[in-house]
Design brief:
Structural class: mainly alpha
Number of domains: 1
Distance between the termini: 57 Å
Length: 241
């Protein structure tokens, strides 16, 4: 097994730290002089940036958040192609009854980017909800799967105007894609481990969206296009405090 497991642990850490780059926070602070966490929903995600800072800032946040997931997973995929994956010591020669295959490793790196985005060490573990990062990770898993996911997401958003519902829907749909595409090749991996890790991702992302789910169930979720007035929002929060 040698030093391979060290590289794999480093790639898992890379996944976390890529995910933890606080794109929305930096755009708010550097580009507009505000802390995005103190406006609108307080979430560091595309929807809140879009409502608070406009389309350009929202699109920039979406693209850069997705890139965080893509870069980390592509690094892991290149390692599988050109490195010597250790299976974390569970290959057939170890006597361990279950083998943590390549799909497990890819899905785990993707999961680490999601955890990093939601719980960034730089901002006292107060981050976003990780839907965009998860979509970007899917691009690293397989570009075809990513295109399918994004088409579904776009049409759901277009017809419902509810980003949270669109995000939650494609998050759930992503599970079979991890099962089929998560592995050393681009197609037909059929990785049970990737499916299991992706199910854990779904649970985590749904937990992060629990407030949105409550609002969706009570039909009070804010739709796309509803703007946040920064001055009024700041004044209201000041008066409340």
């Amino acid at each position: 097994m040698g030093y391979e497991i060290v590289y794999e642990i480093l790639l898992l850490l890379l996944g976390y730290f890529c995910g933890s780059i606080p794109v929305a926070y930096l755009i708010g602070k550097l580009g507009h002089g505000i802390d995005i966490r103190e406006h609108g929903s307080g979430n560091m995600g595309t929807a809140n940036v879009l409502r608070t800072l406009g389309k350009k800032a929202g699109l920039t946040t979406l693209v850069l958040d997705m890139l965080k997931g893509t870069i980390a997973v592509l690094c892991a995929r290149f390692y599988l192609w050109f490195g010597n994956y250790s299976y974390f010591g569970t290959d057939s020669t170890s006597g361990f009854p279950l083998t943590l295959d390549e799909g497990f490793f890819l899905a785990l790196v993707a999961f680490m980017t999601i955890i990093g985005h939601s719980l960034p060490v730089w901002l006292k573990f107060r981050g976003g909800k990780s839907a965009a990062v998860g979509a970007g990770a899917m691009l690293g898993i397989n570009p075809i799967a990513w295109v399918i996911i994004m088409i579904i997401w776009f049409f759901l958003l277009k017809f419902t105007k509810l980003m949270s519902l669109s995000n939650l829907s494609v998050t759930l749909i992503s599970m079979p894609f991890y099962w089929y595409f998560g592995g050393n090749s681009f197609f037909g991996n059929n990785s049970l481990w990737a499916l299991i890790v992706s199910a854990a991702m779904v649970v985590f992302i749904y937990w992060r969206h629990r407030a949105n789910i409550k609002r969706l169930l009570t039909c009070t979720e804010r739709k796309m296009g509803q703007k946040v007035d920064i001055e009024k929002d700041t004044k209201a929060k000041t008066e409340t405090n």
